[in-house]
């Protein structure tokens, strides 16, 4: 599986487990909601800095989002 798709699936799974909308999660991560949507669909190839921002609201290591 392509790493961008894997990242997107992990982000969506964790976000939904928290009961957050994409907008809620985007606010917590400090990124735009449409960017979250693109990530969840595997259409973005975020930098490692963005991956770290994505991990912070979940309180998980950034690497867990790529596993």
CA distance, first residue to last residue = 11 Å
Shape: globular
What CATH first level would be assigned?
Mainly Alpha
Overall number of structural domains: 1
CATH architecture: Orthogonal Bundle
Helix and strand pattern: HHHHH
Report the average pLDDT across residues: 97
Estimated structural class = mainly alpha
Kindly estimate the percentage of residues that lie in beta strands according to DSSP. Answer: under 5%
Total strand count, please? 0
Q: Classify the helix fraction into a percent range.
A: 55-70%
Q: Which spans of ≥5 residues are poorly predicted at pLDDT below 50? A: none
Largest sheet: none
Number of helices: 5
The CATH topology is given as 434 Repressor (Amino-terminal Domain)
Task: Describe the protein's architecture and organization.
This is Helix-turn-helix transcriptional regulator. It comes from Novosphingobium flavum. GO terms for molecular function: DNA binding; DNA-binding transcription factor activity. This protein is about 65% helix and about 0% strand. Helix 2 crosses helix 3. The chain has one domain: 434 Repressor (Amino-terminal Domain) (Orthogonal Bundle), CATH 1.10.260. The chain has about 70 residues and is mostly helical.
């Amino acid at each position: 599986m392509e790493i961008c798709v894997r990242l997107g699936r992990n982000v969506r799974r964790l976000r939904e487990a928290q009961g957050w909308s994409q907008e809620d999660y985007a606010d917590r991560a400090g990124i735009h909601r449409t960017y979250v949507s693109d990530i969840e669909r595997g259409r973005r190839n975020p930098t490692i800095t963005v991956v770290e921002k994505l991990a912070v609201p979940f309180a998980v290591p950034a690497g867990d989002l790529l596993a």
